[in-house]
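Fill in residues.
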């Protein structure tokens, strides 16, 4: 600070200039100069700046490091990041497959699920990746969908899942109206697995050899009177029609190993199975009554039930099978 009279003589002004120069070079700390009886000149010594900021008066927000890599300036009503959300990547990437890449490693690299990559590139689960192959990678786990005529946001969500608000935000939709041909990304959407194709089933037919006369004679007819309505079918079985309640007889000596009374039982309805000494078995199905029980020893020709129309049956008849034996002779 300088204080000097307006009428300070020239010699005094020269003396003041000398004092200032001396202060700058550090030769003196303070200077008090008197001239005459009425004028006093006081000069405060200049000092170096002590603030580490070379421009402390310059305004502006601080710089904040985000994710150890991105620098963003503080913003907001209070100069903070309190109300700033770092935008997520919204771009679709193209990945060129390199040697050693797998579906799982690529998915991990882009932080999406393997299915997201499969769906975006119309690949099946068994697809093999080729070096140099270009894959479309969505920015989030989900499905990319091209809007078709008649589509609505609700119908798309019903088909692929996802949240309506999230879909609108992700795709910048201001309304639920969708233009045909527009491609949208459905976060967390899923493509339903196609229903398995049902192959036409063939009736299982298992028959043994025709057998010798002795082998054929080992089995007797399970009904005293019947009409054959269907030849060998299923598991070496035949259908022998007779009125409901007609007695059913054991075709050979043996032990009852299955006795089911009531229920569908795979289409057999009420049925039983007899195990025979030579390793074969006979099965009697669609019974109206089962008159035997498990572990019972039965003799050839003994009555063990009655004809019925239970299970998968289109009329009163006995379905009779010979398993692990000769071709059904009846």
């Amino acid at each position: 600070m300088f204080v000097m009279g307006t009428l300070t003589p020239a010699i005094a002004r020269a003396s003041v200039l000398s004092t200032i120069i001396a202060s700058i070079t550090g030769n003196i700390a303070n200077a008090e100069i008197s001239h005459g009886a009425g004028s006093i000149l006081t000069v405060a010594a200049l000092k170096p700046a002590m603030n580490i900021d070379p421009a402390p008066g310059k305004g502006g927000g601080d710089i904040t490091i985000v994710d150890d890599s991105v620098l963003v300036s503080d913003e907001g009503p209070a100069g903070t990041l309190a109300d700033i959300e770092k935008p997520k990547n919204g771009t679709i990437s193209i990945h060129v497959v390199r040697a050693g890449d797998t579906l799982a490693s690529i998915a991990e690299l882009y932080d999406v699920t393997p299915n997201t990559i499969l769906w975006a590139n119309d690949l099946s689960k068994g697809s093999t990746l080729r070096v140099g192959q270009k894959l479309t990678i969505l920015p989030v786990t989900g499905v990319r969908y091209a809007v078709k005529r008649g589509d609505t946001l609700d119908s798309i969500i019903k088909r692929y899942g996802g949240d309506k608000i999230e879909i609108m935000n992700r795709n910048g939709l201001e309304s639920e109206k969708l233009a045909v041909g527009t491609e949208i990304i459905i976060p967390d959407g899923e493509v339903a697995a196609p229903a398995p194709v049902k192959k036409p089933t063939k009736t299982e037919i298992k028959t043994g050899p025709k057998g010798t006369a002795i082998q054929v004679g080992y089995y007797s007819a399970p009904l005293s009177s019947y009409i054959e309505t269907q030849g060998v079918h299923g598991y070496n079985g035949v259908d022998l029609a007779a009125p409901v309640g007609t007695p059913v007889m054991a075709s050979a000596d043996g032990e009852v190993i299955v006795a089911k009374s009531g229920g569908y039982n795979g289409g057999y309805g009420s049925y039983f199975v007899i195990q025979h000494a030579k390793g074969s078995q006979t099965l009697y199905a669609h019974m109206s009554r089962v008159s035997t029980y498990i572990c019972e020893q039965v003799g050839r020709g003994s009555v063990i039930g009655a004809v019925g129309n239970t299970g998968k049956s289109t009329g009163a008849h006995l379905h009779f099978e010979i398993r692990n034996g000769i071709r059904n002779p009846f």
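The first helix runs from residue 10 to 24.
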